[in-house]
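hey m, so remember when u said the tokens were messed up on ur end? i reran from scratch. heres the input so u can diff it against urs
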Amino acid sequence: MNKMRNKFIMCIVGLMVILGISGCSGRGDKDMINISNELKLKQEYASIIDDTIVEDAISTVYTSIVNKYNNRDEDTNLIEMDDDLLEALNIIQTSAQLSMDDDNKFNSLLDLASIFTVIVDGTKYEEPLLDKNENGEYIIEDGAHISQEDILLIKDKLTNNLNKYFE
């Protein structure tokens, strides 16, 4: 009876370990941010911004960042910033600078552009590492990564701005 109980406990512990390992592997849906294909600013913010080019840039930035967040590197959590994204972000920041006399517009644009700052602040750099790739060639890994804590901050900022500014 005692042996049977010990085997039962071992089976339960083994099952818990297997479930724990499988639950930790890969990225689950809980890490994903779901958005519609076309983000549209809420009417109150569209009327504050009152510029279709800037509105399109904002939609482009947020759609791109969410897609890049969802498809980030699994090992390092790095979120790729390409030239199109940076160009759209530059449009938002330039518009914010030009609207410094309009507090509502300036603050809204600054808040919308701040997602980039959260991502950059979350990216940590360590000493580069010399490594070999699968072909045996030497490569330099830059040591950049985003911690799980910073990924959660990025996700929170993205989610809050999506809920606040978009329909």
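this time it looks ok to me. The chain has one domain: 37-165. if urs says something different then somethings off w ur setup not the seq
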